[in-house]
Amino acid sequence: MNFKKTAICAASMLMLTFVSGCGADPVEQVPNAVVGENAFIITLYPDVAPITCKNFQKLVKEGFYNGLTFHRVMDDFMAQGGDPSGNGTGGSENTIKGEFKSNGVNNTLSHTRGVVSMARSNDKNSASSQFFICYVDKCAEWLDGDYAAFGEVKEGMEVVDSFLKVERTMSMTGEVSVPTSPIIMDKVWMIEKDEEGHPRVEVMMQPIPVSEEQPEEDAAQADESAE
């Protein structure tokens, strides 16, 4: 399982200047969520990872994620996105402190299904804009203590699951994870806080390019007619 734990790091994420803050103050939030067929909602937990949440909100409010993709999708693991380069090598202008146990931060949010966390390189303070969403509870065994979990998909996880239906090819590191058609975040914006006061983000996807697999019955009929 060490491969999966290490592989969550962006392949060659740009090493930029470390900052503990995140720049501009929050802008006015959109008052209501409108969860469509291709949308999901992330609840953020600033009490667990304040630096990470502030950075993520800043990027959302700047429109940074609009039009970016989920460039890495792995069965029984996670979906990773938020790279302006689209291939795992890029990031935003600033990097932030890694808020996790092995970096001196008591982050209590476990990497279970639906939890959102930050991707990084081997440098513990290299996270910037790339994030990932866990597909399985077992991610906790591989990632807890070494990656900054900061939120959770509370609505629309089925949309994130649909990424797994997109045809994928092998990456340079030998994992079947690279979508052959782009999985695009159309618009990402802040919505009203939840009942407990947690900030929330809505991610509206463009139509998911699900691969059309031929049903087994139809495939058998096609084989018979070809004989």
CATH homologous superfamily (4th level) name: Cyclophilin-like
Task: Report, as a whole number of angstroms, the end-to-end distance.
Answer: 45 Å
Q: Reading side by side through the largest sheet, how are the strands ordered?
A: 3-4-7-6-8-2-12-11
Query: What is the CATH class?
Result: Mainly Beta
Q: Give unreliable regions as ranges.
A: 10-29, 214-227
What is the topology?
Blueprint: H1 2-7, E1 18-19, E2 39-44, H2 50-61, E3 70-73, E4 78-81, E5 95-96, E6 115-118, E7 131-134, H3 139-143, E8 149-155, H4 157-161, E9 168-170, E10 176-179, E11 185-191, E12 200-205, H5 216-226
Parallel strand pairs: 1-5
Antiparallel strand pairs: 2-8, 2-12, 3-4, 4-7, 6-7, 6-8, 9-10, 11-12
Supply database-style keywords.
227 residues; alpha+beta; eight-stranded antiparallel sheet; two-stranded parallel sheet; 17% helix; 23% strand; disordered C terminus
How would you sum up this structure in a few lines?
This protein has 227 residues and is of the alpha+beta class.
